[in-house]
């Protein structure tokens, strides 16, 4: 066999194989590679988009946490103010009640003093009448001398 014929036959077979590969094998391989690279690109874009959404969500969470903290602090401050107002009101009510009790006690004491004075006046008037009776050795008519006894009570 001739070396040139073998080389020529191998070249023809190689060219047929190259044409067959380029016509029927390469397009599906190129298509699969293009699809794979497109999926990778889409996956990377989705990952970037997810990362951006995660950052945005983290920022929203931080803002909401900050807002919740501020609202909590505002509520605490408001509750403290209300507690102070209620405490002040309770103090005022207690002071008013204490003043009312003291005034009632003073009024009661004044009434008791007046009653005691009236009682003492009556007793002193009776003692004065008895003393006058003893001095004069005769009985004084209390009804007849009521005006005199009332004047004596008023002086005492």
The count of DSSP E runs of length 2 or more, i.e. the number of strands, is 0
State the oligomer.
single chain
Rg on CA atoms, Å: 60 Å
Low-confidence stretches: none
Estimated helix fraction: over 70%
Main sheet properties: none
The number of helices is: 2
- State the secondary-structure class: mainly alpha
Could you say which overall geometry the principal axes of the C-alpha atoms support?
Answer: rod-shaped
Give the terminus-to-terminus CA distance.
171 Å
Mean pLDDT: 87
Instruction: List SSEs in N-to-C order.
Output: HH
Number of domains: 1
Determine the strand fraction and express it as a percent band. under 5%
What does this molecule look like?
With 156 residues, this protein is mainly α. The chain has one domain. The protein is built from two helices and no strands. The chain is rod-shaped, with a radius of gyration of 60 Å. The model has no long low-confidence stretch (mean pLDDT 87).
Which key phrases capture this entry?
mainly alpha; ATP_synth_b/b'su_bac/chlpt; hydrolase activity; proton-transporting ATP synthase activity, rotational mechanism; 92% helix; 156 residues; rod-shaped; proton-transporting ATPase activity, rotational mechanism; ATP synthase subunit b
């Amino acid at each position: 066999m001739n070396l040139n014929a073998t080389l020529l036959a191998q070249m023809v077979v190689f060219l047929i194989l190259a044409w067959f590969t380029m016509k029927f094998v390469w397009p599906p391989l190129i298509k699969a590679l293009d699809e794979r690279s497109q999926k990778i690109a889409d996956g990377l874009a989705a990952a970037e988009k997810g990362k951006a959404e995660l950052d945005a969500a983290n920022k929203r969470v931080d803002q909401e946490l900050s807002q919740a903290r501020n609202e909590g602090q505002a509520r605490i401050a408001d509750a403290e103010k209300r507690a102070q107002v209620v405490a002040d009101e309770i103090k005022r009510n207690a002071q008013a009640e204490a003043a009312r009790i003291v005034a009632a006690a003073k009024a009661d004491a004044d009434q008791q003093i007046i009653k005691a004075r009236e009682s003492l006046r009556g007793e002193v008037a009776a003692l004065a009448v008895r003393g006058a009776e003893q001095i004069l050795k005769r009985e004084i008519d209390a009804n007849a001398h009521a005006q005199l006894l009332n004047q004596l009570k008023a002086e005492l």
